[in-house]
Structure to design on (433 residues):
């Protein structure tokens, strides 16, 4: 088995049928028509996969579109990624734009940039430093931290391209976790053990078990200790 | 009663777990996606679970958590038999089956140094039945033949093995979930083994 697994390297613009590889490196533009199963995937430029990706370690500098599911152990994104179905990994670190059509599962989900998740975002530790309006259907996990970054301190250009306007940084139906810190978040319900609302939140219902604090500039319709 | 459901909030309170734990177990596939059932209520949308199943599962996870890692645990609950191979010494060492059962197998099928999960399952079934003294060795041979022949074809559907005897003549069958079976009076059910439970037990012993 081991001998038959080869590497795939694309320089320039090329199409590949996909398949099982050891390492896959794309410099330029790669189109993969089918499922990709590899230990290491690196994209410098642009890559479109018409199928599932299963990989151990993934490094994307540029943009990547995946038409189906994306399953990996470690994912690092500098640029943008668009997964049309589910994304799951042990660790996802994204500097840029992350968009997922289905659910997103990760032990660590670390974002600097913006994201849009059509389904459920489930992560052990969520660190969201938002530079543009972001959304998920629902969010659940252990430790959840949402911060809105000021426009000047990181990627000045990015914030010009994706300005907040008057929107909240994050909008979602519900956020449920153990320890939650939120800024500029709009949600119907936030539930957890310890909840701290920083500035600019609009929450309809807060349910907490141990502690709850809120900034004066945040609005909460109903709060309940359970 | 079987279809009774429980809301997420009730569940956390009743089983004393946190959101973080619940979602971690969901990520590890310890709790199947299908058990998260969304329903509209007058307070908005809420998530419900099949009560009996989820409480059972959480109890099991809590009891086992200390000894094995969550990743190993998720293998336990996965319905697929892993691609685990295990040597006969290891089987004996882990107390999965006894030397007698291995000897029986060796007599029937020749010596084999390694067993895949299905083989171990067959051995485990035999071990259970021989030890309880409910079957003799000829019958054990019949069960082994039968399992080897039929089990792989239906493995994901099977939940029970039933061993029957009437007027000294024995037989066995594999049954899939839910249905009740009635036999005529002269038929004696010697043993009913829940295969799904056995698989879980076995996996815990093997990880």
């Amino acid at each position: 088995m081991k001998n038959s697994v080869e590497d795939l390297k694309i320089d320039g613009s090329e199409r590949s049928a996909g398949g099982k590889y050891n390492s896959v490196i794309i410099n330029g533009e790669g189109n993969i028509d089918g499922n990709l199963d590899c230990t290491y995937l690196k994209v410098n430029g642009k890559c479109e996969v018409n199928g599932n990706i299963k990989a151990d370690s993934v490094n994307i500098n540029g943009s990547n579109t995946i038409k189906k599911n994306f399953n990996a152990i470690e994912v690092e994104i500098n640029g943008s990624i668009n997964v049309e179905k589910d994304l799951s990994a042990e660790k996802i670190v994204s500097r840029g734009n992350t968009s997922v059509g289905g659910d997103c599962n990760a032990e660590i989900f670390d974002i600097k940039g913006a994201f849009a998740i059509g389904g459920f975002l489930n992560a052990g530790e969520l660190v969201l430093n938002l530079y543009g309006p972001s959304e998920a259907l629902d969010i659940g996990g252990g430790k959840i931290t949402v911060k809105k970054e000021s426009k000047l301190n990181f990627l000045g250009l990015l914030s010009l391209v994706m300005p907040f306007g008057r929107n909240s940084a994050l909008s979602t139906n519900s956020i449920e976790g153990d320890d939650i810190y939120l800024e500029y978040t709009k949600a119907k319900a936030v539930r957890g053990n310890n909840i701290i609302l920083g500035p600019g939140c609009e929450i309809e219902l807060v349910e907490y078990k141990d502690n709850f604090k809120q900034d004066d500039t945040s609005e909460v319709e109903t709060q309940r200790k359970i | 009663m079987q279809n009774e459901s429980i809301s997420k909030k009730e569940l956390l309170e009743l089983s004393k777990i946190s959101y973080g734990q619940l979602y971690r177990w969901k990520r590890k596939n310890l709790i199947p996606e299908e058990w998260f059932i969304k329903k509209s209520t007058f307070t908005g949308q809420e998530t419900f679970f099949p009560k009996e199943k989820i409480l059972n599962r959480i109890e099991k996870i809590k009891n086992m958590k200390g000894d094995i890692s969550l990743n190993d645990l998720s293998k336990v609950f996965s319905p697929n038999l892993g691609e685990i191979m295990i040597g006969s010494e290891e089987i004996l060492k882990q107390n999965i089956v006894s030397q007698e059962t291995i000897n029986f197998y060796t007599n029937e099928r020749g010596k084999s140094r390694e067993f895949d999960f299905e083989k171990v399952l067959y051995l485990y079934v035999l071990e259970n039945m021989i030890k309880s003294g409910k079957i003799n060795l000829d019958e054990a041979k019949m069960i082994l033949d039968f399992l080897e022949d039929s089990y792989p074809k239906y493995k994901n559907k099977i939940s029970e093995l039933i061993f029957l005897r009437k007027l000294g003549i024995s037989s066995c069958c594999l049954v899939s979930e839910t249905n009740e079976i009635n036999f005529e009076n002269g038929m004696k059910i010697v043993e009913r083994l829940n295969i799904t439970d056995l698989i879980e037990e076995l996996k815990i012993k093997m990880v």
The CA atoms of residues 128 and 181 of chain B lie 22 Å apart. DSSP finds nine helices and eight strands in chain B. The interface with chain A takes residues 9, 13, 18-20, 22-24, 26-27, 44-45 of chain B (CB under 8 Å). The beta strands of chain B are 5-7, 37-41, 44-50, 85-87, 114-116, 158-166, 169-176, 188-194.
